[in-house]
Model the fold of this input.
Amino acid sequence: MRSTDVIERFISIIGEDNVATHPQQTEHYRKGWRSGEGEALAVLFPKTLLACWQLLEVCVEANCIIIMQAAKTGLTEGSTPNGNDYDRPVVIINTLAMDEIVLLNGAMQIISFPGATLHKLEGMLKPFKRAPHSVIGSSCLGASIVGGIANNSGGALIKRGPAYTELSLFAQVDKFGKLQLVNHLGIELGESPEEILTNLTNGNFDKTQYQTSRKASASDYDSIVRDVDANTPSRYNADPSRLFEASGCAGKIAVFAVVLDTFPMPEQEQTFYIGTNDASVLTELRQHMLKHFTHLPEVAEYLHRDMFDIADKYGKDTFLSIYHLGTSFLPKLFAAKGRVDAVLNKVSFLPSFLSDRIMQAVSTLFPDHLPKPIRAFRDKYEHHLILKVSDEGIEEAQQYLSALFKQDNAKGAYITCTENEAQKAFLLRFAAAGAAVRYQTLKDKSVGDILALDIALRRNDSQWVEKLPASIAQHIDKSLYYGHFFCHVFHQDYVLKKGVDAKKVKQDMLMLLDSKGAKYPAEHNVGHLYQAEDALVEFYKSLDPTNTFNPGVGGMEKHKRNCSCC
Done:
């Protein structure tokens, strides 16, 4: 079909207002959050599951590439086009309008449609005193539930591990090039795609007697993370045990719905802010708590002092926006910023990244946003750990921390945070994710690219503080470290010096990580920034034998595969 005919078919299904084709209209959806972009024939915004299925039928018939996209909060270019060297037209299907959540068995489980967000789920579960897989960090950005499943998102919550389910409803293109709808939700919804999707949308099934033997969460993670003597990481993207249909699919299928477990909310929580100049103290603390504590902590987030400083200064506007306006405001702010940037960046006489410069300047007008005790710890200590415990684990942690630091004050110290101090500590940690990008953006004339790595160290690796060889360190302006400490998952952002070859530095960096037995990425999909391991390549091919969905991820080919003879 001609491109104009394809677009007319799209319009006939979802209406002209829900089909974007002009480059300025589509720019926000064609660009990654940090990097990556490409052309697209159209960006589509279906409002129903059935309409989404009908759009997929047109795409397959017209031999189009399909990129499924939700909130676009990924950091590895995995939900946008990558370059303009595809062999077929690219169509982006944005799923955010299909955001229904169905509670099952009194909110013990849920069904999530593809556009539903963690933030929305968190609000729905509060009256039942239950919580979703992730309630920190990405949920504030409006990240989708299905996106977390598709990307093996790990999150900050120690007890829950990576996002995982074996229960999903999805469309895939088989080896004969036929679009198929696969219902593995564990719910009888009918036979034909139209019947299945209509019954699911209308809730034509029993929501109170849901039972299945398949997993709807990584229920074995407790024992995995506690094994601190193991010579392998606790969680990483290409772990074969976590690759199952929608889980880890990286957009190689079109996911319509997933079933997930929910979790009881603690009755009480207490946050401790820990500072030390000796990294081995945090190693000792991690090993002891994971090995010997009866009750695992909820969260253990690490910040190096350099990252503290960058988040403090260049993440202040994000911090203040959430603190004063709430998490529900932030996705709207980012969307509005994206639309404004798409226009302003094309005006030649305006400075580059004008909205970032304005937001940064405005943030400096506000008084200090951090509590004085935390500010004092920044001045005194290099390594920072934000530790949250709950219920029976509170007394256990208090006794241990008191003994650990009472024995030797030189080891460091801790703050028993008030509720406000705890909130602000976690907001600082959350702001870190975007602060490095802001720093690089505003200093683009004096620094080079940003290299963002997401790594999982071996559980028994005590040398978690990175010491870069001079051959790599000479090319770096800033090395910024933060992450999920008890899981030994770290985000390492490197702002390179001007003129440095980022690909060469990344290659050298990954070779160094390989020598340490680390895995990468740890909790984002490989996107277009990482080479997929062999097991992951085979998983992607099994889901998408013709390479119709999201081709090129993991360094794989972008051209169509003819698998009818396989």
Summary: The chain has a mean pLDDT of 93.
